[in-house]
Amino acid sequence: MEIDEDKIDQAVLALLHLTLHNGGRAWKSFDWGAMNRLYEKGYIDNPVSKAKSVLLTKEGERESERLFRELFSKKS
Length: 76
What we know:
Elements: H1 5-16, E1 25-27, H2 32-40, E2 53-55, H3 58-72
Antiparallel strand pairs: 1-2
């Protein structure tokens, strides 16, 4: 099976929205490959640190919320 990493990245970014706290920080308990790609795309700060959370950029916060609504909200 061929995996669409962009779709994985979108889902991870959307799920980061669930754990937002302290001014744009989110728990970084996701696949390191996806976290590194989100960093390369400019959605999060460098995830490589001892911290258990990562800071989303302003663009990352907006896109995270948009994707969360798109992927997980109930449709009427």
